[in-house]
UniProtKB/TrEMBL annotation:
<dbReference type="GO" id="GO:0030697">
    <property type="term" value="F:tRNA (uracil(54)-C5)-methyltransferase activity, S-adenosyl methionine-dependent"/>
</dbReference>
<comment type="similarity">
    <text>Belongs to the class I-like SAM-binding methyltransferase superfamily. RNA M5U methyltransferase family. TrmA subfamily.</text>
</comment>
<feature type="binding site">
    <location>
        <position position="215"/>
    </location>
    <ligand>
        <name>S-adenosyl-L-methionine</name>
    </ligand>
</feature>
<dbReference type="InterPro" id="IPR029063">
    <property type="entry name" value="SAM-dependent_MTases_sf"/>
</dbReference>
<dbReference type="InterPro" id="IPR010280">
    <property type="entry name" value="U5_MeTrfase_fam"/>
</dbReference>
<feature type="binding site">
    <location>
        <position position="297"/>
    </location>
    <ligand>
        <name>S-adenosyl-L-methionine</name>
    </ligand>
</feature>
<feature type="binding site">
    <location>
        <position position="236"/>
    </location>
    <ligand>
        <name>S-adenosyl-L-methionine</name>
    </ligand>
</feature>
<feature type="active site" description="Nucleophile">
    <location>
        <position position="322"/>
    </location>
</feature>
<keyword id="KW-0489">Methyltransferase</keyword>
<dbReference type="GO" id="GO:0000049">
    <property type="term" value="F:tRNA binding"/>
</dbReference>
<keyword id="KW-0808">Transferase</keyword>
<feature type="active site" description="Proton acceptor">
    <location>
        <position position="356"/>
    </location>
</feature>
<feature type="active site">
    <location>
        <position position="322"/>
    </location>
</feature>
<protein>
    <recommendedName>
        <fullName>tRNA/tmRNA (uracil-C(5))-methyltransferase</fullName>
        <ecNumber>2.1.1.35</ecNumber>
    </recommendedName>
</protein>
<dbReference type="GO" id="GO:0005829">
    <property type="term" value="C:cytosol"/>
</dbReference>
<dbReference type="GO" id="GO:0019843">
    <property type="term" value="F:rRNA binding"/>
</dbReference>
<dbReference type="GO" id="GO:0030488">
    <property type="term" value="P:tRNA methylation"/>
</dbReference>
Amino acid sequence: MRPDQIQPELYEQQLGDKQAELTRLMADLSLPALEVFASEPAYYRMRAEFRIWHDGDDLFYAMFDSADPRTPIRTDQFLAASRLINELMPKLIDAVRDVPILRHKLFQVDFLTTTTGEALISLLYHKPIDDEWNAAARLMSDAFPSCHFIGRSRKKKQILTRDFVMETLTVNGHKYHYQQVENSFTQPNAGINEQMLAWALDVTKDTSGDLLEMYCGNGNFSIPLARHFDRVVATEISKVSVQSAQLNIALNGLNNLQVVKMASEDVSAALNGDVALPKALVQAGMEVLNPSVVLVDPPRAGLDDATVELVRKVDCILYISCNPETLKANLEALSSTHKVVRYAMFDQFPYTHHVETGVFLERIG
Ligand SMILES: C[S@@+](CC[C@H](N)C(=O)[O-])C[C@H]1O[C@@H](n2cnc3c(N)ncnc32)[C@H](O)[C@@H]1O
């Protein structure tokens, strides 16, 4: 992405263009009216990554245009990133510039921030980092209260204080607390995420019984949704995300949500009866789970055939998608048993062609 693509004065127009594009793509499907959720037009991304460009003893943040990937675009401020990232950007460059061990061979900086004012800053190096680097980084970090620093070089990660931030999201007046770990999946646009969570609570408000969730990440959806259900079993492939989800369950005082580390393919094979139920699913209470809703939030590839067959067995399907193309293919496959009763577009990634979509399906007849 080029920084000059962020043009808040054109926000409404780009949102309208995206809505038109999504409507064109989905034209063959039978869908209810589209609910459109707008982003903040600027300062909406809680994380951002920048390359570092060196110019003699000076250095600056750089971004690249995919059409011209060799030419750095100096990026002193980035309107898409949170206000806190914009505040930290010049402060960090000033702190690093005059300390050779921090500056030398620094090639990337990653920021992860929260709506509550915490920041995690990762400094990535093309050189080994050692105790001397650690001491210099600690000295620098004194000037950055509420910031946590990580140094990375090939095969080495030095965590100065911690490698996560604590986020609090407010949905319908309730506060939900989440640990978010460096390099693990988190929804980038906190404002849109709060709107997605409110929408997921709204579409499931009249359902009761149990919830089965796949691709649960750090429990982003599971935690607010658990209040609508008797029991929830959620699954996820990433060990780090599962550990965060376990912590987040405790942080939010839930006792009806179990998270299992397992690939969706294995969950589907077991629940479709192709293989015996793995011990981890038995221990999570899957044998007695009677889901009235299944929630899926897969990566861009969408649902594989076995997972489509699994979700088809459940009366209601809540599907959050970051790729309308694969969503469309999955909806076509599900159209013989389910109909879409709610349909929403969330502008998670303004000024890009990416769009996040939510659909809620009910069994036909
Ligand atoms: C789009 S993210 C959604 C995460 C979460 N629902 C959220 O809102 O933050 C997709 C998640 O699917 C997980 N994932 C990717 N491939 C998977 C697989 N084959 N089986 C299970 N989980 C997978 C990723 O680790 C990631 O956490």
